[in-house]
Amino acid sequence: MAVLLLAAAASVLLLLPPPPPAAARSAAPARVFSVADYGAAGDGSRYDTAAIQAAVDACAAAGGGRVLLPAPGDYLTATVRLRSRVVLEVAPGARLLGGTRQRDYPPEFRRWYVVLAENTTGAGVTGGGEINGQGGAFVVTPSAQKNVMVSWNATGDCLGDECRPRLLGFIDSKDVAVHDITLNQPAYWCLHLVRCDNSVIRNVSIYGDFDTPNNDGIDIEDSNNTIIADCHIDTGDDAICPKSSTGPVYNLTATNCWIRTKSCAIKFGSASFFNFEKLLFDNITIADSHRGLGMQIRNGGNVSDVIFSNIKMRTRYYHPSWWGRAEPIYITTCPRHPDSKEGTISDVRFINISSISENGVFLAGSKHGLLRNLKFQNVDLTYKRWTNYTGGLYDYRPGCQKMVKHKTGGMMLEHISGLEVDNVSMRWWRGSLKGWDVNPLLFRPSTIDGLSFHDLQSLDVQ
């Protein structure tokens, strides 16, 4: 066993991306520009946008530095635009409050952020304080099942029911640094990287309303060479979410994080038009989430060279209006629409994983989008029911077959070419598993080939 663990650890280290360049690691210039010196009131009722932006612009003109929001203070603002080499420092005891009016944000929906850095180098956010999106103001009807939210779609600037401002965004930027900050109550997505390179997100605490949809924790969209470390994410929707809309996602490492969500803790997609390559998720704790590790590949992009290692999780049912059915591991690829391309998922390893879950592992490729070369090594899966939600369903959403009635087993397999299982235990709390097939493996033989099993155990616990 020791040899196996050492070999697994070595393979994990091989996928670690190189450290960010010196420009990203070096401290920001020491010069400090306090927003109080530019007229900020910090009383939470008057808008301090002009004062904050003036401090940012002065800092940028001076070659960079830190823009300080001193404590105590609640600084209400419309969109603040960061500049290159400017770090926004929200002091402990200070809060930056996002405005709750549509006119507080630019005309273009893609720029609806409380804090926005666009085409910057070396911009960042830190300080130990809080950025608060005042998400409660966007709730139309509170519900423990799922909140009904306002949508700013009347003017046509945004369409659909997800027209709300995000909290913190970096677009087309390099050497992004977000650390030692609390991001609280986003109305929509919380921390969003779009086409960024060399980003470090460290020691960030994210708290979203657990009943609010679409308040993702960290969305890494078309961005590369990203490190996420030592983060605490407790939110309603997906927690760490790589997406590929206009370009690939590669060299992403997430480590030493704690996650709770009503949706998926780590989810690839569902925007998946381009490839995902060389991603590592290590030393993650997932608590009472609707899904643990997930891939929703729906738009023809491919996934390869991914490691999930040293992960402990507990997954449970929530109301089916939330995507997910308590799967600890959910790896799927299928066309979003009948004319969509089918992507493949290959060379994915699950190493040193333990879970307590209300549903089984779900591994489902599609006819022209196979799952290839998956490996489970040193994995302990415990199956137990403790909520009263209905089981016996597989959730293919979005698109595909949607919700499908099915027997429930330890692993459901379809459209796979190459699956290696090495030292995997399934533990069954039989007294709580009414309606389960209690079968380690459920699959249609015609869709599976290249199976390899070594030391697969199925054990009764009760």
Number of domains: 1
Number of helices: 3
Contiguous uncertain segments of 5+ residues: 1-11, 19-29
How much β-strand is present in the residues? over 45%
Percent helix, as a range, is under 10%
Under CATH, the topology is which?
Answer: Pectate Lyase C-like
Output the structural class.
mainly beta
The average pLDDT score comes to: 92
Give the beta-strand count: 35
Let me know the largest β-sheet: 19 strands, parallel
Write a structural description.
- The chain is built from three helices and 35 strands.
- The protein is mainly beta.
In short:
With 462 residues, this protein is mostly beta strands. It has three helices and 35 strands. The chain is elongated, with a radius of gyration of 23 Å.
Offer a few descriptive terms.
462 residues; mainly beta; Pectate Lyase C-like; 19-stranded parallel sheet; six-stranded parallel sheet; 3 helices; 6% helix; elongated; PbH1; glycosidase; Pectin_lyase_fold/virulence
What is the fold's blueprint, element by element?
Elements: H1 2-14, H2 22-25, E1 32-34, E2 43-47, H3 49-61, E3 65-69, E4 73-77, E5 80-82, E6 86-90, E7 94-98, E8 113-118, E9 124-126, E10 130-132, E11 139-141, E12 148-149, E13 166-171, E14 174-184, E15 191-194, E16 197-207, E17 218-221, E18 224-229, E19 232-235, E20 240-243, E21 249-261, E22 264-270, E23 276-289, E24 291-297, E25 303-315, E26 329-333, E27 345-357, E28 361-364, E29 371-383, E30 393-395, E31 403-405, E32 411-414, E33 416-428, E34 441-443, E35 448-460
Pfam family, one: Pect-lyase_RHGA_epim
Family: Belongs to the glycosyl hydrolase 28 family.
GO biological process, one term: carbohydrate metabolic process
